[in-house]
Design goal:
heterodimer, A: mainly alpha, MetI-like fold, 2 domains, three-stranded antiparallel β-sheet, two-stranded parallel ribbon, 63% helix, B: mainly alpha, 14 helices, globular
Amino acid sequence: MTADKETTLPATPARGYWAEVWRQFRKRRLSVIALWYIGFLSVVAVAAPLIAGTKPIVCRFEGKIYFPCLSYYNRGWEPGIFTKGKFRKEYSTKLKIMDPESWAVWPLIYQDPYRRVRDGEWPGQPGNPSGADGVPSRFNLLGTDQQGKDVFAQLVHGTTLALLVGFVSMGIAATIGIIVGALGGYFGGWVDMITSRITEVVMCIPTLILILAMIAILEQTTIWHMMAIIGITSWTSIARLTRGEFLKLRDAEFVNAARAIGVGEIRIMYRYILPNALAPILVPVTFGIASAILIETSLSFLGVGLQPPNPSWGTLLDSGRNNLALWWLIFFPGTAVFSAVLAYNLIGDGLLEATDPRLREGR
Amino acid sequence: MLRYLIRRSLIGLLTLSLITFIIYALIRQMPGNPATAQIAEMGLNKRITEEDMERINRSYGLDKPWHQGYMEWVRRLLTRRDLGRSFTHKKPVYALINERVGPTLLLSLTSLMLSYVLAGPLGLYSVVRANRTDERIMSTFLFMIYSLPTFVAALALLYFFYQRLGWLPLRGMSSENFDSMSPIQKLLDVGWHMILPVTCFTYGSLAYYARFIRSNMQEVIRQDYIRTARAKGVHPLFVVVRHAFRNTMIPMVTQLGLTLPTLLGGSVILEQIFTWPGMGRLFFESINTRDYPVIMGLTLIFSLLTLMGQLLADVLYAVVDPRIKLE
């Protein structure tokens, strides 16, 4: 009896799979820093209108509270009272004139990503210079572009676009890729034949050809079009990996056990296999986010993506290409694109090492 | 082996026709056509009458619905091996591609050779000095430049070497007085224009291959036969070069197959920045001018190369690794 007790070790609950992945991931300092950086960028992306803008975050006008800054997220959200009549969106001057009782909380920096700030708009701040005069200064932290629009404001608002494109397009790609890969890997046979062939065809179409052709079809490209197009052209690597994982796991003991107690096929796929396959699938997804950001910026750079008034890192770089002497139009947006891509690649690399036991030994 | 090749080729043919079909369907849905694109480009406000429009459409063969147009394209390709004529350049697509393929190959082959030659020593170095400070720094640096977008690098290089220093040219493949130069001067002139594009083409793949070699070597170096070699007293350098490096050649060789499409395809973005008269730029132009025959011709070539590259990679894999049998 006592011998038995000695052999059963005091039970420490086994670490879960995800906890183990996280423990391995944390060992790579650079990847963790990259994760923090992406967190920081996400905050900037969400809070962009609070950081730079010419519309009050909150204001009280004629007895009512408004949030005009929300219109940076969606133009339709601008309160009608400010767009109609004599107000014409000139918040900084008209608020006080039209209602002396009004008050407003302003963004950290009074600059607009869509237009040039004029003289006398903001007390103590001159109008934005343009062209070669637009060097970084106290009022324009990162300079201004050819039309006198503030680079800092464009960068901050461009972050929203870049991160959104990364997340949403990879969300679409992951959904398609996981479904296609899971079906092929789990069922095998002719289902696998069909899904593998589809994957192969999409993989063989040069991505840029497909994207350019699809964009050319659209009369006007919006962010959502871009994200959809990038999403439906970049799911192939996710599908291939998912297929491999499902192929490996479909005959695992816990899956057979689930089958034996009568769990349905679909439920087995997404409740039993998918959670165990998700960590490796995250690797191509992370790298995919990096390349989605890259695709979006290159398209804007080539002038085929979103049209100029929309602030994008790529558009800024494009204006830098046409005015090589204005180094701030190259350096700052270039750094932004580079650091975001690098961060996602670092996270992907960390995940790869954390989920692949072959790379782990001897480290 | 032969059966495998035949089967793969047949599947490839099917894939190819699917791809060209999809692309043809897509590009015919684009708003505008060669005629309207031309007018928009020339900035003519002149209204064209409907009759004129119809005449132009008929001359371009655009009066038929797209599926008929596609069948026509396939028929001409198969029976006369003809890719049609470019609408904007007024030349056969073959001739046009022939003109553009040279400049692209000049860039891509130079950069491929450079990256293969340089990646080997870099990869070996990082394995030999694994986990020391200098290796850590080098690997981090390689990882960083691997993540550096080419257009950002191109702009930064242009800023320094063209704008600030004035050492290197802004664009194009040759200077304006190219025709009056002696052959040696011509060679030097093209070389001078190539420096920046080749640098931008190379650094990314160089970093990729170096990392590739390193990660493969790290797997190989833990094998038993390496331990055996070490145990019997082989010089550490020879262990790495003779015993380990040879085995990492297998994935390297297959990589060679996969670079085939990029070799001819060039890079749209780099050729656009440097105004390099290559295939990538031709493709971009032809999308903007709605030059369907050129788009189709390039799509055909690019996807054919992608398929052939994959097949080549698989075949080479079986050739260099006797453990792998193709069935």
